[in-house]
Write a structure and sequence with these properties.
Blueprint: H1 3-23, H2 26-32, H3 47-57, E1 60-61, E2 76-77, H4 79-99, H5 106-113, H6 117-123, H7 127-145, H8 156-168, H9 172-179, H10 186-201, H11 211-234, H12 241-254
Antiparallel strand pairs: 1-2
Helix pairs in contact: 1-2, 1-3, 4-5, 4-9, 7-10, 8-12, 10-11, 11-12
Length: 261
């Protein structure tokens, strides 16, 4: 069986079954040929077919190769996917600033972005997945451009100070996301993700502890940093960030005792 036949009999039916005749992109219709006319074209799809469907939804498209009539071996990101995801993200960030986190729904978000619900769910499995996407953008920026000791988990002081100062420089929308608990609790997620990335980049310094005891310690570190940042914002940022950051580092590592006089 050739690759073209394999695509026609396995991969293309999977696309057809999910996208349906009126919404299947023209770039994929030629792959179906007369397959869609045969009874049973929507039969059980193999793992390979499911994989192709997921790849297609993520923006990978296939076209005819020049002069051969076959499938191109190279995949490319569909610019429409990039554009649609940007529309969704921009609408989401605008709504965070205007109506607040708790009041954002998929229905209102899609109306704001000028798309339908089906299009939204082709790009994000849920509203939580959209939050995760924004969170990962922020965290990638921090670890790629600001964190210098990601592989040194014992540098709690440095981690606490650098992340606090990084958050100080974020946009008002990101600040509002972090400071609004809400159903998703962006702030809790972002601090949890920070610690998970340290843990995966270097050796876990708390591995010697019982798992439940370790989680208590990690929760203390996370919530201390998050509450410190939220309270700093709530009080109008009156303490200079360069003064607040060392305070957070000291409290994280040693508690309040060293600050007593």
């Amino acid at each position: 069986m050739t690759m073209t036949d394999l695509y026609r009999t396995r991969f293309a039916p999977a696309l057809w079954r999910v996208w349906k005749p009126r919404s299947l992109p023209s770039s994929a219709i030629w792959c179906l040929g007369d397959e869609r006319k045969k009874p049973g074209y929507n039969r059980h799809i193999s793992n390979e077919g499911d994989f192709a469907t997921r790849a297609f939804f993520c923006g990978e498209t296939h076209g005819r190769s020049q002069g051969t009539g076959g499938i191109m071996t190279e995949s490319k990101t569909d610019l429409r996917v990039v554009r649609t995801r940007k529309l969704i993200r921009d609408a989401f960030m605008d709504m965070v600033g205007e109506v607040g986190v708790a009041r954002i729904t998929v229905k209102d978000l899609t109306e704001r972005a000028g798309i339908n619900r089906k299009t939204f769910y082709l790009h994000f499995e849920s509203i939580e997945a959209l939050y995760d996407s924004v969170m990962n953008e922020v965290m990638n920026d921090f670890f790629d451009n600001h964190e210098t000791t990601a592989d040194q988990p014992k540098d709690l002081d440095g981690h606490a100070q650098r992340f606090f100062l990084f958050l100080v420089g974020q946009t008002p929308t990101i600040e509002k996301l972090i400071c609004s608990p809400g159903p998703y609790d962006f702030g809790n997620h972002i601090y949890r993700e920070q610690m998970m990335r340290y843990k995966s980049a270097g050796q876990d310094p708390f591995a010697w502890m019982d798992a439940d005891a370790e989680e208590l310690v990690l929760n203390f570190i996370r919530t201390t940093a998050l509450d410190f940042y939220r309270e700093w914002v709530r009080r109008g940022k009156r303490v200079d960030p360069k003064e607040a950051a060392p305070l957070l580092g000291a409290i994280t590592c040693h508690g309040a005792a060293p600050l007593m006089r």
